Amino acid sequence: MKISARNQLKGKIVNIEDGAVNGIVVVDIGGQQLVSSITMESIRSMGLKTGAEVYAVIKASSVMIGVE
Fold it and tell me: What pLDDT, on a 0 to 100 scale, did the predictor assign at position 12?
């Protein structure tokens, strides 16, 4: 698969919370967790399961950084 997005993070699914329409997919990326809300239809059609290796692809017009 080739895509134009530069921010591609490889990780492993650690949890999937099923919902009525959308599901929450939690991906461990080197000790950090990334959380994504996607449709249940997409979760099923891609065969996503806990333990599967996936790529989180981030495409955004802006990324905010904050400090305490």
Answer: 98
